[in-house]
Each structure stands twice: as structure tokens, then as C-alpha cells.
Amino acid sequence: MIRVLLVDDHPIVLSGLSALVQSDDDLSLVGAVGTVAAALASTQEPDVAVVDLDLPDGNGIDLGAALKHRWPGLRALVLTMHQDDQAVLRTLGAGLDGYLLKDSDPEDILAAIHSTAGGALVLGTGASAAVVAAAAHAPRADALAALDARDLEILDLLVRGVPTSQVAAKLFLAPKTIRNRLSDMLGKLGVATREEAIALGRAGGLGAARPS
Q1: For the chain, which terminal residue's Cβ has fewer other Cβ atoms within 10 angstroms, N or C?
Q2: 104 Cβ partners below 8 Å, 6+ apart?
Q3: What is the pLDDT, as a whole number, of residue 52?
């Protein structure tokens, strides 16, 4: 059974999503709330959090990251009305697991929840063809081939949401060294921003849970 937390400040949307989740025998609704504060106050650990991008007391990207920090096994999916490549890249760069538009078919939303719970990266029609193509390219063997072992170690930690200062501490390097290496990595990967590098690393399998 996949436990689902829904976060959306529109009562009608929240009600519809709740009914949709409850219609699936393999999903269990553990919470349906309308604010960041209410989501953070939740005591029942979900497997998947489905969060709106814009909330009255914050945003879904930061909320998803906070929930994943609280519950490391959690998967987080942004469900929004905004078709925005930069928001997609921020979502993936923050370590979240997918981006989907609210006008998606109900079956597609359910499928996205199942796929996200199973560990897949979900990019719906909220991402442009260019972003989807970049993510689709990343898993290929040559996608991260330009990076050396230390680059991959750094990028793996960044994909996990570890701040630069903590990456430096973990690897016994200076923060400036991490920033310089990240700048070099952008050139190697052919991207312009940290968020794009993290998105490519995530789509390429970095940041996956390691066996304990």
C-alpha cells in the first residue's frame, strides 16, 4: 500500500485529488492539507507527497525538500498549473521526484504517483521537450562520462540535497574548491546552471538510496 499526502490550498482540487487517491485500492490517503505548516505538522509518514507549487505560506518545492529531509524515504511530486521549465529545473535541483500539470488525465496522475513511489523520475507535460530530452539523455552511458570520480561524488551529494558547505565538510575540501569544481562540471555537462546539472545527475541515477 502506497501512503499518500496531498498538499493543495484549493479545496475543490484537494477534494478531487483525495477522491482520486481513494479510488485506487493500492493507495492510502494519510493526509490532505492546504498549507506548508499543516503538511509539516503531519505525523503520519507518507511514501509519496503530492504538493502544489504555490501555497499561501510557502512553495511546494521547499516543502517537498523539507519533507524529504524529515522522511528520507519519501518521494515528492509537484502537481501544478504552471508549465515552467525553470520551475521544473528547480524542482529536480531541490531533489524532488517529478513535475506534473493539474490538467493531466486522472489516470496519468495516479500512474505518476505509482511511478514516483517506485523510484521513477516523472516529467509530465509541465516540462518542455528540451527539458524532457535532457532528462531522457542523462541515463545513457555517455551522459555523465565527462565527469571524473570526484565530480560524480560531489554531484551525487548535491543531488541528495546536501548544501555546498556540508559537501565540502564530508569530502574534506574547501567550499571554494567545491564551487570551482561545480563550475567546471557545468562546462563538462554542457549546461548553464547548478539546477540543470543536478537534474541531469538525478535523471542519470545519482542520489539514489544506498543500502544500509
Answers
A1: C
A2: 112, 124, 125
A3: 97
